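Friendly challenge for the regulars: who can give me the structure tokens for this chain first? No prize, just bragging rights.
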Amino acid sequence: MCAGVSDRGQLGEARELAHDAARARREALGRILRPRADTIQDNTLGHAYRATNFLGLGALAAKRWAAISSRAMPACLDALEADDTQRIGLLDQAGVYIHELRAAGFQRFAMKPLTSLGFRLALREVKAHARAEGFDPEELEDELRVFQRAFEARIIYRT
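First reply, four minutes later:
Bragging rights claimed.
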């Protein structure tokens, strides 16, 4: 668009509508996942036990995984629902939990599959409940995957 030609406010309106749609999708994800977060986490715990046995860390490390990830969950769900700017800050704050996991002996190669499993289980819930929130399952799947990429970039691969 040329500087001398007005868009009559249409570009601003389009950006605002896109922002509102993204906010609605993120809030729907929160409504779906918050009440199911403990179950999703419990379902990953068996895999954490296997991973800690494989790494020679034992059951105590798996219990640490459960405790630390339980403390991290509210911050991660807040980041899921946040706008892009807030999301970055919230994910950076949640990075402290990854440092705790590393201190407990978890390496990135062990955390990545457990995290991926958690996202797969979350996606299953999102697809099952999207229509009840007024969304097509693919819309919410796309929004969750955007968050997963941000989460992995800021939490798994950065720290």
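The chain has one domain: 10-156. The radius of gyration is 18 Å. Your move, everyone else.
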